[in-house]
Write a structure and sequence with these properties.
- With about 190 residues, the protein is an alpha/beta fold.
- Helices cover about 40% and strands about 20% of the residues.
- It has one domain: Pyruvate-ferredoxin Oxidoreductase, domain 3.
- The chain contains 8 helices and 6 strands, in the order βαβββαβααβαααα.
- Strands 2-3-1-4-5-6 form a 6-stranded mixed β-sheet, sandwiched between helices.
- The model has no long low-confidence stretch (mean pLDDT about 95).
Amino acid sequence: MESKNIIISGVGGQGIILASELLALVAMEEGYDVKKSEVHGMSQRGGSVVSHVRIGEKIYSPLIEEGTADAILAFEKAEALRWIHYLHPEHGVVIANDLEIVPTVVAIGLDTYPENIDETIASIASQSFIVDGLKYAREAGNERTVNVVLLGVLSSFLPFSEETWLSVIEKRVPRAIEENKKAFKLGRAISTGK
């Protein structure tokens, strides 16, 4: 496998760090070298959180260079736009939760929330998926599984077996195991059509 570069972004409390840990553990279980780096910033105040995850035979740096991300997994739509300049221009995939969290500066009128995000993403990414993560998480039986739904969508773009994903989810997320497994499978079905 050629190396894979994935940016996972969102706002504090959405499970970005857990999602990056699950991705890293799956890759390691399948025998790959993994490096990851996180920026928490003002995450406890609903600020931006981003995680860089690099996977390959041998990875030397945890940071992804602009224009080299194979995928951006965004838990909020404006966060997809914030990091889209990292996307590879020819084969980059964007998976974004269909959620808009209005930042404080927008709420108090000092800035505006971006318009036409879906169209902007579609015009830049080779493939894009705007996913109603909350709908699928509710279908799985637990609203807190949105991050696993989105990982399920991402999983079809990576060479890791579904069995490894489910095994890692079971080991790393011991509460609500069945709901998380169902959330993963629902997400995977979005991108595979199965």
